[in-house]
Design goal:
13 strands, 4-stranded antiparallel sheet, disordered N terminus, single chain, mainly beta
């Protein structure tokens, strides 16, 4: 059950108690390990949901409304969830079998002026997903668990942004939309 929490909304006692306990634990750990801890109140906003270790997260405008959405690869449900960062509303759920170790990024890789979701699957497949039209392309590549994905405009000679993959074998690869 996802619920959106902003700094200005009232909080119930259970939530406040949980946050105090979490903060106390983080402060104790910080003192013991001489490290800084995250203070949730210093964030611009935060979203309270069941994010787990090895889930994926990205941000981009996939629904073409001019505002970026929060993209969550949820390994516990094996889905990619698209959230409105203003109110936490679920805008879409994609059944893409997102698992622990899969990768997630987004950007305009097909040069249509709109961002796509890039999903790196441990089954050696990189999939490009258009929010409005579903899967718009994919290519096979040796994508291993915990390889990382990003999107950027690295090559002027390629229309659209490129898919960037860093793998566990110490290489960084740059791909066009079709995997070339």
């Amino acid at each position: 059950d996802a619920s959106f929490v902003s700094g200005s909304e009232p909080r119930d006692d259970t939530f406040e108690s949980s946050v105090r306990n979490l903060r106390d634990t983080a402060e104790d750990y910080s003192r013991a390990h001489n490290e800084l801890y995250f203070d949730y109140q210093s964030a611009l906003w935060y979203y309270d949901f069941n994010y787990e270790e090895f889930d994926g997260v990205a941000g981009c405008d996939v629904d073409d409304d001019g505002d970026e959405e929060l993209i969550h690869g949820d390994r516990s449900t094996n889905k990619i969830v698209i959230l409105n960062p203003v109110d936490g509303a679920i805008l879409g759920v994609l059944n893409q079998n997102f698992e622990e170790g899969d990768g997630l990024a987004c950007g305009d890789v097909d040069n249509d002026g709109f961002d796509e979701i890039i999903f790196g699957d441990r089954a050696d497949k990189i999939t490009i997903i258009d929010y409005h039209n579903g899967v718009s392309g994919s290519f096979t590549w040796d994508f291993m668990a915990y390889d990382q994905l990003a999107v950027g405009n690295l090559l002027d000679s390629n229309p659209g942004e490129e898919i960037i993959m860093a793998d566990r074998d110490d290489y960084i690869y740059v791909f066009a939309l079709d995997g070339s």
